[in-house]
Amino acid sequence: MSAPLFDGTPPQPHSMVKELQQVGAIRSAAWAEAFARVPRHVFVREWYGQEADSRGITVWRRHDVADHDAWQAAVYSDQTLVTALDPETAERVGERAWTGIPTSSSTLPSLMAQMLENLNVADGHRVLEVGTGTGYNAALLCARLGDRLVYSVDVSPDLVEAARGRLASVGYRPHLAARDGQQGFPGHHTPFDRIIATCSVPRIPAAWIEQTRPGGAILADVSMGIEGGLVRLTVEEEGRAVGRFTTTTGRFMAARGDAHAYRRLGRAPYAPHGGCRTTSLTAADIRAHYPFRLLLAFHLPGAELVYHVDDDTGAMSLQLQRRDGTWARAPIADGPTTTVTYGGSADLWRQAEAAWQWWNDHGRPAQDRFGYVREADGRHYAWHIPDRDRRPLGA
Question: Per the domain annotation, does 194 fall within a domain?
Answer without folding.
Answer: yes
